[in-house]
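User: I'll paste a sequence; please echo it back and then give the predicted structure.

Assistant: Echoing your sequence first, then the prediction.
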Amino acid sequence: MKSLIVDKSFKFAVRIIGLARFMRSKKEFELAKQILRCGTSIGANIAEAQRAQSDKDFLAKIYISAKEANETEYWLRLFYEAKIISDKQFQSIHSDLKEIIKMLMSATKTLENKAGKKVLRSSSIYNNKDADEQ
């Protein structure tokens, strides 16, 4: 049985591919490449973590996924602020991303507690109330 985070991150990657196609249609080739790379990397690293050789290996892959999720969030916010994507587009995909970030944070906290260490500082690079409302 697939885990929920594997399924959600895969579906998110499919949405990112659609967004990259949309960006290319607007002649935003470099930006499309950036969002495609980091947005699909989230799920790829989560998938790779499913076959981790140890808890340490699993945690490393989840950390990479979390970092890629934060980078994806950066690009989405940039696209929104630059008026490349609409408010509706941003809200929809950002909501999915925030859910994945929460799941990644939960997974890391569980393993960190098991290992007795704290590595990740927050669930998002945007922790203030204003950012959550956008």
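The longest helix spans residues 87-115. Residues 96 and 119 are 24 Å apart (CA to CA).
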